[in-house]
Amino acid sequence: MSEAKFNRRRFLQMSALGAGGALLAACAAPAAAPGAASSAAATTAPAAAAGGEAAAGTGALEIFSWWTSGGEVEALNALYEIFSAEYPDVEIQNAALAGGAGQGGNMKALLETRMMGGQPPDSFQVHLGRELIDSHVIPGRMEPLDWLYEEAGFNEVFPQELIDIASYDGKPWSVPVNIHRANVLWYRTDKLEQAGVEAPTTWDEFFTAAEALKAAGIPALAVAENEPNFSGHVFECILNAVLDPDQYRGLFTGATSWEDAGVTEALEILNRAYDYANEDYLSTSWGDINDRYVADDGPAMMIMGDWTHGVLKSKGFTNYHWAPAPGTAGKFIVLSDSFGLPVNAPHRDNAINFLKICGSQAGQDAFNPIKGSIPARTDPDLSVYDEYLLSAMEDFKSNTLVPSIQHGAAAKQSFVLDYAIAINILATTRDVAQSQAELVRAAGDAEFVA
What we know:
- A hairpin with a 2-residue loop joins β4 and β5 (171-172).
- By secondary structure, the protein is α/β, with parallel strands linked by helices.
- α4 (72-86) packs antiparallel against α18 (361-371), α10 packs across α11 (203-215) and α14 (261-273) packs across α21 (432-445).
- The protein contains 21 helices and 13 strands.
- A five-stranded mixed sheet has the order 2-1-3-12-6, sandwiched between helices. A three-stranded mixed sheet has the order 7-11-13. Strands 9-8-10 form a three-stranded antiparallel sheet.
- The chain is globular, with a radius of gyration of 21 Å.
- It has two domains: 8-180 and 335-398, 3-Layer(aba) Sandwich (D-Maltodextrin-Binding Protein, domain 2); 184-327 and 412-445, 3-Layer(aba) Sandwich (D-Maltodextrin-Binding Protein, domain 2).
C-alpha cells in the first residue's frame, strides 16, 4: 500500500474503514481523562441522551478529538481537569480516536456519520476556519457563537484577525483553544554538529547541509508518507518560501494559478528533498516519525508544526532546536484547534461550559504549554511558557500571518484531501508534472477562480 498512488476515493475509503475500526477499538475502553468515563459509552450513548438534558453541571459531556499522542493527551487532560474541578458531577466522555494526525481522518469520518445522522457529540476538535465552515456550518449543523463571545468577553481577548477566521456570515462558530505554527524546522544539534553544518535558512543552504549530512551517513529530512498528509505539510512551507504572501493567498482565490512557475519550483524543491529523506519514508507513518526522529540513527531535521515541541518534550528528548522552515523567516503559517457547539448537542449546557473553559485564560494557560502551542488569547500568564513558546508568541505578533492548507485554515476540506493526494503522487512517482496537473485539477474542482 505504501508504494501505491492514492486517489480521493481510496483515501476516503481508508478513512471510513479506519473510523469503523477505531469505533470497535473504542468499545474496548481506551484510556479516559482523569475522572472521566471511558469512550466506550461516548461512542454508543448519544441517542440515549436525546430524551432530555440533565440539569447544568450534571450528566455527561462527550468530546471528540484526534488527540491521542504524547503531549496531546496530557494537554487535553489539563482542560478536563479544570472542567472537572468546576463541574465535578459531570461525567466526561473522552471520545478521542487515534489515526487522525494532521487531518483527524478516523475521528472526522466517524464524526461526519454522527453529525449527518443527527447524533452529534457535545463538542469536537476542529481546525479553525474553512474546515469547520464548509463541513458543518454551511450545512446547518452548528450553532453560531456570537452570543457566547459577547458573554465570555472573547471579543476583547482574541485577535480580530483570528475571530475573522472563525467567522462566517458575520458570526464566529467555534472557540480557538490555541495557535499553532506550521512552518518550523526542528533540527538535532548533535547531528548538525557531526556534519559540521548549521541550521539552513534557505533551501539552497538546506541542500548544501544535506550533502554534508549524507556524507556523514545521516538522513537530512524526516518524512512520513505512508499515507497522504505529511508531505502536504512540508509542501505548504516550501510554497511560502517561493511565493510571497499575496501570491500564496491567491492560490485559493484564483488570483494565482496552480500552474504558476512558483508552484513548479516548489514541487521541484520537494522532489529534490526526498533524495535526502529517510530511505523508508514511503513506509513510515506520521504517528511513527517522532520515534524515528529521536532514535540514534534518525534524521537530522524535520519540517513540522510546533506540536512537535510538545511531543518531543513528552518523550523526554531535549537534543533539538528550532528555526523557521527554510525561506519562511518573517512568515507565520497559522492554524488553530478549536471547539464548537453542534445543533442538538445532547448536553448543551455542559458543552457551553466546556467552550468557556477552552477560551478562558486558565484553560489556555493549562493546555498550551503542554501541547506545544501558544494561546489564542492576548493576555496569557507568560511565566508558564518556555523559550520556544515565548519566541513563537513574539513571531505571531510581528510576522505576516498566512493560513495553513494542510490544517484546514486556507481552503475547504475537499480541496485539502485532493491537495494531500496530489503531493503524495509526487512522493510516490517523483513526477513533478503529474503532481502539478493534479493540483490544477483540484483547484478547478474547488472553484478557485478570480
